[in-house]
């Protein structure tokens, strides 16, 4: 489910610059989602997508508490 969400985010969302699903070796059972969007508007658009709805619906119970996202402006030089 996570990889489907990541694949569709990167392919279908113009504001999605990168979306990685990471399984840390030292923390079994944990999943880290690293998303880079072109700005807050791109991330907000991601929240309303069908692929994210499928991801959320795939859990028998609500997913564990999510950590808040961090938004920062990046400058290209």
UniProtKB/TrEMBL annotation:
Q: Which species is listed as the source?
A: Dankookia rubra
Pfam families xref list: ABM
User: Any keyword Zinc?
Assistant: no
Segments forming domain ABM: 5-57
Instruction: Read off the InterPro entries from this record.
Output: ABM_dom, Dimeric_a/b-barrel
The protein here is known as Antibiotic biosynthesis monooxygenase
Keywords carried by this UniProt record: Monooxygenase, Oxidoreductase
Q: Give an example GO molecular function.
A: monooxygenase activity
């Amino acid at each position: 489910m996570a990889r489907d969400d990541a694949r569709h985010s990167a392919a279908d969302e113009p504001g999605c610059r990168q979306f990685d699903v990471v399984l840390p070796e030292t923390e079994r059972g944990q999943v880290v989602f690293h998303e880079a969007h072109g700005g807050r508007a791109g991330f907000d658009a991601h929240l309303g997508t069908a692929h994210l709805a499928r991801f959320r619906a795939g859990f028998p119970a609500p997913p564990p508490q999510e950590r808040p996202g961090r938004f920062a402006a990046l400058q290209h030089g």
